[in-house]
Amino acid sequence: MTIIKSKGYVTHYPLQAIDEELAYKLLMSPTTLDRHNSNALQLFDCHCHCLGEYLSLTNLDGEKLTWLVESFLGSLHVGDIAVLEEYIVRQRSIAVTEMISGLVDLVPGLQPVIWSRARLPHFEQTWQESKHKLDPEIVSFWSGWKVKAKKGKSVYLKLVAMYHSHGPEFTKAFHEAIRRDSLKRAKVASGMINKLAKYISEQSFRFPPAAFQSPEMMEDFFEHYFWHYQNIEYERNEDPELNARTFRTMRNLIIRCFLKTDVWSADEDAIVLPAGKSKAGSELNIKKNKHGIEIKDKLLTEVPVHVTDIQAIDLLYGEITSDLSCIEKWGLSEALAIRKAQRIRVREAGDGMLLERVVRNPQNRLNFEKLGFANICRTFEDEGMCTTNDARRRYGIRLPALALKLGLPTTYSLLPFQCLLTLYHPEITTTFMDDLVIWDGPKRVSFLKTDKGYELIGFKDRRGSKNSEQKILLHPKAAALVRMVEEITEPLRQYLKKQGDPTWQKLFLTCGRSFNYPKTADSNILNRTAVDKNAFRREVFIARLSPHTVKRGDDLVDFIKKLSITRVRAQSAVADYIQNHSLPRLARKLGHAHMNRDLLDSYLPTAIYDFFATRYVRIFQKGIICEAMKDSKYLLRASKFDDFDQMHEFLSRYTLKEVPENLKTREENRLANGEIVEVGVSVSAESMTALMSIRKAINLSKTPHAVRGLAKYWAAVCDTVEKYILKSRDKLLHAHLEIASKNCNPSAYESMIHAVS
Length: 757
Hints:
Blueprint: H1 7-10, H2 20-28, H3 37-50, H4 62-78, H5 86-101, H6 120-130, H7 136-142, E1 145-148, E2 154-157, H8 160-182, H9 190-202, H10 215-237, H11 240-259, E3 286-288, E4 294-296, E5 303-304, H12 309-349, H13 373-383, H14 388-395, H15 399-406, H16 415-424, H17 430-434, E6 439-440, E7 443-444, E8 447-450, E9 453-459, E10 469-473, H18 476-488, H19 490-499, E11 509-510, E12 519-520, H20 528-533, H21 535-545, H22 553-562, H23 565-580, H24 583-589, H25 597-603, H26 606-611, H27 615-621, E13 624-628, H28 644-654, E14 656-657, H29 661-664, E15 679-683, H30 685-700, H31 709-727, H32 731-743
Parallel strand pairs: 13-15
Antiparallel strand pairs: 1-2, 3-4, 4-5, 6-7, 8-9, 9-10, 11-12, 14-15
Helix pairs in contact: 3-5, 4-5, 4-6, 8-9, 10-11, 12-13, 12-16, 12-18, 12-23, 12-31, 16-18, 16-23, 23-24, 30-31, 30-32
């Protein structure tokens, strides 16, 4: 039996068995460990309350008080009142004995109780003889009101005030209704529930328990609660639209938990339903950048709300994909670096010896290399992870450098892995990663090998309770990353196991700056504030990202500020849409249960979306019809342009055209609404020479990440046209292609393809 299940919820409990005057007297008593007095007194209060004892300065009895203290010490020692670490038990025990000793002059016959290890058997015996006096109802009260979500997360509701205002039965019914509903949810909406419970307890004079069985009174209750909620929330955030939206969520919760289950007697229509006002996707995520240009601020890449065709092509076929490529190359580089360090540690351990356990003088500033790196590795592998103080005694004081060399997952070490996982699988959200539990005790629960490959199981709360569980069949690269993270975090996992800390079951663990106590890695660790305030960290990211991007200076710093799991996820999904032009596929990539055009509008400006309907993109989406030009007055003109914008204008005007009139009547070239399916392409030897030269220049580029999107686009057009010609039986088309292959001149375009738009 353990009465107090978690120290977290008990802080909301006022003293129940010790009156205010006595509590003040006890807290003012001088003790060895003053800072522990308040918590110790609460534990003692719980003990007295559960035994049915109520204490005040007017009713204190020396013999009874001695019995209460000794039984409390026994209860605390065996873990019946709460499960605490041994040193905390000792601290709380001494604090209570010293506080009670301060009453010797006020309570006749009171003999001070002295805590000692030798007397623990006596205290335990006293407790065992007292347990029969426990009041089950009060024990239940102190056990808290626990609810557990579908994904296994437990929280304790704040129902103490309701318990006192509306009684045990009403509170139990309230708690049970929430408990049953929470088992179907990905997360417990504890904030909303606690707000509702607080209002009910405050309005007990107006709405006693009987009111909740009266449909007429419930109409009054819901009206009052609606306006109370709006007023309170408006004082906090001054956002009526948000408050209306959250109240609709509250309304649904009340209907699910209390009305449909007949816990309360009321009609659903009695609850006010605020009008819903939601912005269209095209209106979301719009802000002005530092140049005063309106942009969609959802991706890593800034996308202007208003764009020309050239800007659209450069963005869609250049910046969006190159920025994503930068993240992938950086992520792989960082992931492989820490993996390499971890494997070197394991290998070096085989050649090392255990370090002697000596306390080193920090003033010596010992370099860990002097100890012998192999010896350090051997010691670490044998003894496992340790926290800062022990690490300093074992290895010296250069712990951050040592953690890096040992391949330990420090503050930012796992961010590259998380970015890569999201890049390969945009359906993975930050919540999914933060809550990802690989183990449930001895059982592996979410990273499982199947006939099709490795499957990752997690939750995405915004999909709703029925669809919140996500099973993701991992790309082989992603599966390899998960296995790497498991191995890299294993020392931390073993340490947490020894401490009895359930955090060991999580996948993403970090030891902070070096040898800190392990905790769950925060997927949002890098943000604008972190980049602005931490100059050293900013310079590290600049150095690590620079080899993979053309961005420099402020542009690179701004890019780093945007580097987040959320933006990588969005960018990856959009990049896939650019390549595949499928809205249903986009929805699946993002892990959305339903497809919605509004979805894409929230990521990209409407102007960009509309661009996909132009001939520039239809050539890839729907198909082409190629016609050979028999002669051209623009002979060799295509290789004599000063910049790529001029080249683009020429190719756009004389190469990509609408379908010729003589082919528009063909039924197979029309959609149901009359839209032309194909794009017409005029093929000449000159235009094909230009296209093939552009493509080859890109392939030969020594800085492929610097190639602009416009050039990549025309290289893709070249691929599409070439495939068409090779499948065609048109001899003239084949002749043009043959001439172009012979005259291909990539050097003429080398400088142009790298020009900045």
